[in-house]
Write a structure and sequence with these properties.
- It contains 13 helices and no strands.
- By secondary structure, it is mainly α.
- It has one domain.
- The longest helix has 33 residues.
- The protein is globular, with a radius of gyration of 21 Å.
Length: 283
């Protein structure tokens, strides 16, 4: 078992590798679409069920995300060796090193909270007030409330604060990118996994940057273009219905592919060139 992040070997790649991670992930998804979408639905249903638990649900839901994400890692590992993704695999994380996985959720919550809090240094707290301020009173004009949100987001200082917050959150995101996989597949302790993930991600910053740009384009720009285009050529309310019919399945496929890419990129970076062993009982 690795005792420090420096004990874990990784491979450094060129920038184009980031696109290859997404391409290979989609190939895996396209072979078993139904199984992957079923897992994705089960994942979000589980988070919603936990989230609605009175008082504690809202705190527990983000903490168990790394545990549930192990199910996607297990499913990708299984498919790569001739098996198929299945809903029951979502529970795999609860039988793994859960004492290291749960703290990863705490790290995520703490890191994102610090990054959000840091935005107040730039915009004086306007973004935080919009996100966590008191809910509008029942007699407040919804149009006025929506205009207030638009004005806040249009502010240059708020936009700079959002960018600053994203930069502050980046170390947390990179440290958590491959940490669950390192915990499960390499039995790494929590701090070792976080450090190794961060080191490998920074070493592969070109590939990570292209990966992030592709994720932004496919996950945000494409749906926005489709929705805007439909709004321009199709009259309401049909345009909203059509947008939902087209965009929601697309986003489900995209998010499932993203979950698979966590495994594909992890295996490529930390196990480059290794020969696959088939699942016991399979040829």
């Amino acid at each position: 078992m690795a005792t420090s992040a420096r004990d874990i070997v990784y491979t450094r790649y060129e920038g184009r590798r980031g696109i290859a991670w997404l391409t290979e992930s989609y190939r895996m998804f396209s072979r078993h679409r139904l199984g992957w979408v079923g897992m994705l639905v089960g994942y979000y249903v589980a988070l919603i069920v936990v989230d609605v638990v009175p008082l504690i649900g809202v705190f527990i839901a983000p903490i168990i995300k790394p545990v549930l994400s192990v199910g996607f890692l297990a499913a990708a590992w299984t498919q790569e060796r001739g098996g198929k993704p299945a809903l029951r695999m979502l529970l795999q994380g609860f039988g793994a090193n859960i004492t290291a996985l749960l703290p990863l959720g705490v790290v995520f919550v703490a890191g994102v909270s610090i990054a959000l809090g840091a935005t107040a240094l730039i915009d004086g707290g306007r973004l935080l007030e919009m996100l966590y301020g008191a809910a509008p009173a029942a007699d407040v004009d919804p149009t006025a409330a929506a205009r207030h949100v638009q004005d806040t987001l249009a502010s240059t200082r708020v936009q700079l604060a959002m960018l600053f917050g994203a930069l502050c959150a980046l170390p947390t995101i990179l440290a958590l990118w491959w940490a669950p996989a390192l915990v499960v597949f390499q039995d790494a302790p929590m701090l070792t996994a976080l450090g190794a993930s961060l080191r490998a991600a920074l070493a592969n910053w070109r590939a990570a940057a292209r990966y992030a740009i592709a994720v932004f384009m496919l996950g945000a720009v494409v749906p926005a273009l489709v929705t805007t285009g439909l709004a321009l050529i199709v009259p309401p309310p049909l345009n909203a219905t059509l947008a939902a019919v087209l965009v929601l399945p697309y986003l489900a496929f995209f998010v499932a592919t993203l979950h698979i890419s966590d495994y594909v990129s992890y295996r490529d970076v930390f196990h480059a060139g290794e020969t696959l062993a088939p699942i016991a009982g399979r040829e």
